[in-house]
Specification:
Layout lengths: L1 H9 L7 H4 L7 H12 L3 H14 L6 H24 L2 H27 L1
């Protein structure tokens, strides 16, 4: 993101003073897209971190199911970034977002099932 902003400033696409208070101008569309995608990467992972914390507390973090779901979530976030910021494919982006949600949901179902026993 920093490199993209620096490139935009050097090419005079945007005035560098814009980044002081984010007024008097607008980011180029590609930089807006990357910036929004970067912000999105910090929303759903908070739920994932809370889920992993519960897995650790309940000593379920070492199961193959938890490990697989966790990796599925991580890969889904990387693919979400790819579809959002690089390829710009809306359908792929939604699918990878849904896969991440399903992975978190599966981990919570696993927590509840193991807590009932």
């Amino acid at each position: 993101m920093f490199a993209g902003r620096l490139k935009a400033i050097k090419s005079k696409t945007i005035d560098g003073r814009f980044f002081i208070d984010y007024k008097n101008g607008e980011l180029p569309s590609k930089l807006q897209l990357v910036s929004r995608s970067f912000d999105n990467q910090f929303q759903m992972p908070i739920l994932f971190f809370i889920t992993v914390l519960f897995l650790i507390i309940m000593k379920l973090d070492h199961t193959m199911f938890a490990i697989t779901c966790s990796w599925v979530f991580v890969v889904s976030r990387l693919m979400h970034f790819y579809f959002h910021a690089i390829k710009g494919a809306l359908v792929g982006r939604y699918r990878t977002y849904a896969i991440g949600w399903v992975a978190i949901l599966a981990l919570w179902v696993n927590i509840f099932i193991n807590n009932l026993n």
